Amino acid sequence: MRPDFLFGTPSWLSGAARTLDLMGEFDGYNDSPTETEADAKALLCDWHAVGEALLDAMKAFSLEPQEESEQTAR
């Protein structure tokens, strides 16, 4: 799930039409049936982003060269 799932993805044509939309009629959002479901989707998306950040950090840490003193201590 994308972090911006609440925002609609406009087409090229609707993007061009927004230049003439002075009253904001083309602004669209993805809806959920209930507030609880929308909150659950947002929370799931947040935790997914946290998990990806942790995974990236673990990969970066495992690729770092270790100093010789740290290697002999193990």
Describe what this molecule looks like in 3D:
Helix content is 55%, strand content 0%. It contains 3 helices and no strands. The protein is elongated. The two termini are 40 Å apart. The mean pLDDT is 78.
Query: How far apart are the termini?
Result: 40 Å
Major sheet description: none
Rg measurement, Å: 22 Å
- Contiguous low-pLDDT stretches (5 residues minimum) are none
- In DSSP terms, counting alpha (H) and pi (I) runs of 4 or more, how many helices? 3
Q: Strand fraction band?
A: under 5%
Give average pLDDT, whole number.
Answer: 78
Class by helix and strand content?
Answer: mainly alpha
Q: How many beta strands in the DSSP annotation?
A: 0
- The helical percent reads 55-70%
Defining traits:
74 residues
Quick rundown:
With 74 residues, this protein is an all-alpha fold.
Q: What is the element layout, followed by pairings?
A:
Elements: H1 12-17, H2 35-63, H3 68-73
